[in-house]
Every structure is written in C-alpha cells, then in structure tokens.
Amino acid sequence: MRKFGVRAIVVAVLAAGLSGVAAVTGAGTAMACEAHQGDSREFAATLSRVEPGQRGVEVLGLQRALRYKGYGLRGTGLYAENTLASVKDFQRRNGIVDDGVVDQPTWQALVGPLLPGRTSTPLLPERGIQPGAHDPQMMDQLANAFNRLEIDAPEESGGHYNEAWQATVRVFQRNVGIKDSGIVGPLTWNALFRAVSISGQWGC
C-alpha cells in the first residue's frame, strides 16, 4: 500500500472513524492489532455465494483477499478463469472441495481468520463527490480506499476531483456493476468500503 500523506492519515484516523475499532496507521498499527484480538468469522458469515461468471463487489473483494494471500490477481471484479484457478488452489490447500464455488466454507477459510480490525467497515463518508469538485477531505478518503485495494490511482490532485480521478472511478464502477457515472455517491462509497473489508485491509 502506498504511503499516505499527513492529511490522508488524519482523515483515515479522525474522519473515517472505525466503529468500535481503533483506526491507527504507521507506528500505532501494531498496538491497534494487539488491542483487538479475535477473528472475522461473523463478518465472513455475511458474505454471499460467488460463482464463476459473476461480477460485483464481492468478486472484487475475493480477488483482493486472494491477492494478499499470494495469488497474482488484478482485481477486475469479474470471476473469470484466473480467479477460478486461484480459488480452486486455495480450496485444495484448505481441505475444501475445489469446485470454484465460494460459499461459507471458502469465505470462512479466507476471511474468517482475519483480525476483526481488518474487516470492520468504517462509517461511510458524509458526502459524495461530483465531477470537478474541490473537496480535499473526501478526496483523501477516496484515495485511502483505492490505496487499500492496491488499485492504481492518479497522483495527488490538490483535492480536485479531476478527469483522471473520474476515469479511475468509472472503471471501478463498471468492474463492480455500478452505473459508471463518475459520481462518488453512496453506492460507490459502499462498494469501495465493502471491498476493502472483504480483502481485510482496514485497520491492522
């Protein structure tokens, strides 16, 4: 994950506000992880069945979660051949029937063992972002989510939601099955944050 600037750290800690979980970055991360032992089995139980050919947020989250396990998936949001091969390999390694269907046994093996601080979703940002807007606080939260998903995003834009950022958001929206308007509203925020939760990249 790319390093955040000072402003992004402040936003991640103060504005995003993890529900009941300390949002800590940098030197404080280890302390936050130690303070929240347990697992994410309850969160994993909320995840839906995913099959080859599907597209959506949970497919993208699945791809990123597998990527962090060492599988070389790009995170397209489409459950195609590369994802199928990775899922089957993960299933075999974990004593699960390798049929490529991601249901509770696979979700529990992949997401369930994660510390709860990694999957606890922060409150959604308080407002959206319209094309051409200048909103440094919301842009920092947008960059934070993309960085956690390791999705290539434009460099520092001075808080402007410029054309490069709009194009990046449109690709994400198409990948998860949202209308590619380029407007960052509740559906897009929810998709971004849920994908980060599934991939286990919050907090710790």
Key traits:
Peptidoglycan binding-like domain-containing protein; single chain; 47% helix; Muramoyl-pentapeptide Carboxypeptidase, domain 1; 10 helices; signal; mainly alpha; 2 domains; 204 residues; PGBD-like_sf; PGBDSf
Short synopsis of the structure:
The chain has 204 residues and is an all-alpha fold. The chain contains ten helices and no strands.
How would the blueprint of this fold be written?
Layout: H1 6-15, H2 29-35, H3 41-44, H4 57-67, H5 81-93, H6 104-110, H7 116-119, H8 136-148, H9 163-175, H10 186-199
Helix pairs in contact: 1-8, 4-10, 8-10
Domain Peptidoglycan binding-like: 56-110, 144-192
Protein name: Peptidoglycan binding-like domain-containing protein
Organism: Allokutzneria multivorans
**Average pLDDT score:** 85
Approximate helicity band: 40-55%
Q: Give the CATH topology of the largest domain.
A: Muramoyl-pentapeptide Carboxypeptidase, domain 1
For the report, how would you describe the main beta sheet?
none
Work out the number of β strands: 0
What's the end-to-end separation, in Å?
A: 13 Å
Tally of contiguous helical segments: 10
Count of all domains: 2
Broad structural category: mainly alpha
- Give the helices and strands as they follow along the chain: HHHHHHHHHH
Radius of gyration: 17 Å
| Corresponding CATH architecture of the largest domain | Orthogonal Bundle
The oligomerization state is single chain
Catalogue the unreliable spans: 1-32
- Top CATH class of the largest domain: Mainly Alpha
What percent strand?
Answer: under 5%
Q: What does the overall shape look like?
A: globular
Look at the structure and name the CATH superfamily of the largest domain: PGBD-like superfamily/PGBD
